[in-house]
Write a structure and sequence with these properties.
By secondary structure, the chain is α/β, with parallel strands linked by helices. The protein contains twelve helices and ten strands. It has three domains: about 110 residues, Helix Hairpins; about 120 residues, NAD(P)-binding Rossmann-like Domain (Rossmann fold), CATH 3.40.50.720; about 70 residues, Alpha-Beta Plaits, CATH 3.30.70.1450. Helix content is about 55%, strand content about 15%.
């Protein structure tokens, strides 16, 4: 649908250009016609063409010949038609476009106001773009904050919810619903900007899960101290993945197959155990997670941050634990 809107905008621009070219062609043709038929100077031919097309009712520059009058009739018909098409297209392009943008912005603002437990992406560069695409595939609500005009055009074409402004500014973060958000991704180009953004975001929401991208791995500690929960370095992560592919290629392929392959009938899920859950204080065997939820638990992350892989069936589940499991997705309802 958004692609259709983009093509509609493109077609509207094309029509405006075409009609303006037609209008200028009529003026040029009228000037050349009077010059050829009546032999007047070019400035008088242009003047006669303009007053004829505009139908202002001024008198003729010179008496017209019979052929000149026939030409004037044709010029009025084509000129008025071309002028009407051009003016209509101009009105549609500037007035209606501005109105549509205003209404579209208001509609988007209302959608953003309704977001809850969503993700805020600060920066729509290459990293932010990939994150947004994956979140769209997962149907996870998110909003982007960006101030680059070219990237804003891309988001408008893709139908991405966004806030226009400085991602590190308090007002923009509040407009994006930082107080209601579940997580924030700081993916600005400079580490210093991500550091300032992290400090602001943490001050606005103490419970916000913040993931910051860092260019220089040495700055990771600073971002953690500033309030980031996780810091990701594309260079170190990429290098670690290359090493894993060199040393454990089969294991890496299997993990990627489970976590990233869209057509595979398996998905990784997280089950948060709160105090009211029926799983509290039960052993993994007693919980019967596999039978009731169709999940195979491969790890448990405790509230203190410790993660137990391949947990013992007699391990007791406590409040705040997160069960990491693999399950088959439910078939889509007809």
């Amino acid at each position: 649908m958004k692609r259709g809107i983009y093509h509609f905008e493109h077609n509207r621009t094309f029509r405006l250009s075409l009609y303006l070219l037609l209008f200028l062609s009529v003026i040029g043709g009228g000037t050349a016609g009077y010059r050829w038929i009546e032999g007047w100077p070019l400035n008088e031919c242009l003047y006669m063409t303009v007053i004829t097309i505009s139908t202002v009712g001024f008198g003729e520059v010179h008496p017209l010949s019979y052929n000149g009058r026939l030409f004037t009739i044709l010029l009025i018909f084509f000129g008025v038609t071309a002028a009407a098409l051009s003016l209509t297209s101009l009105f549609e392009y500037f007035i209606l476009r501005g109105l549509n943008n205003l209404l579209g912005r208001n509609k988007m603002d209302k959608q953003i106001e309704k977001l809850n437990r969503h993700i805020i992406i600060c920066g729509y560069g290459r990293t932010g773009d990939y994150i947004a695409r994956d979140l769209q595939k997962m149907h996870k609500p998110f909003v982007v904050i960006e101030d680059d005009p070219e990237r804003i055009k891309l988001m408008e074409a893709e139908g991405v919810l966004h806030i226009v402004g400085d991602p590190s500014d308090d007002d923009q973060l509040e407009a994006a619903g930082v107080a209601r958000a579940e997580a924030l991704v700081a993916s600005l180009p400079k580490d210093s900007d991500n550091l300032f953004l992290t400090i602001n975001a943490r001050s606005l929401n103490r419970d916000l899960h913040i993931i910051a991208r860092v260019q220089d791995a040495d700055n990771s500690r600073k971002l953690i101290k500033a309030g980031a929960d996780h810091v990701v370095s594309p260079f170190s992560t990429g290098a670690a993945r290359i090493v894993q592919l060199l040393t454990r290629p089969s294991a890496v392929d299997t993990i990627e197959l489970v976590t990233q392959h869209e057509n595979l009938e398996l998905e990784v899920c997280e089950i948060l155990v709160d105090e009211k859950s029926d799983l509290v204080h039960k052993t993994l065997a007693e919980s019967r997670v596999r039978q009731t939820l169709g999940c195979m638990v491969f790890a448990i992350k405790h509230l203190n941050g410790e993660t137990v892989f391949d947990p013992d069936p007699q391990l007791r589940i406590e409040p705040g634990d997160v069960l990491l499991a693999i399950k088959k997705p439910r078939p889509a309802e007809a």
